[in-house]
Request: fold
Amino acid sequence: MKHILLVLSILSGLALSMSAQAREVIFTTQLARYNGSGAYFAIYLLDTNDKYQQTIWVAGKQRKYYSHLRGWSRASGKKSAEYDGKTGASITSGRSLTVTQNIDDSLIDSGYKIVIDSAVEDGNSNQVDVSAPLTTAGSGKAVIGSGYVMSLTYDLK
Reply:
């Protein structure tokens, strides 16, 4: 009886670990060259219906500027629980930022998108500066931005 319980316990643990698999994803955002202050930007995920799912990273620590990241701020409600521990300094012209995040395997190749909104003080705000489907095929390929983001690359590990 003890052996059966032990085997069942081990199998249950394996089943749980297999159902909650996450993959390490490295996001690299390269900013274009521009005149002005450091850029604020939010990297986040949208589902297949373009509904907000989660924040990956917010560059820029002053909350008062988050409303300039229009798509992200509206969708996330700027709730601190959505970005606690996922913020850092703004990034200046021509620089890059690399962030690593674990993403649930079920979101990859299932219609989810990575989106970046960007803004610069006394400059423009760019809702959906760059958008890319979160796919295995897209891993390692740069996607060109339309505003302050020159490119976004993500690597699935």
Q: What stands out?
A: Confidence is low (pLDDT under 50) at residues 5-19. Strands lie at 22-31, 39-46, 52-59, 87-88, 96-104, 113-120, 125-133, 143-144, 149-156. The radius of gyration is 18 Å.
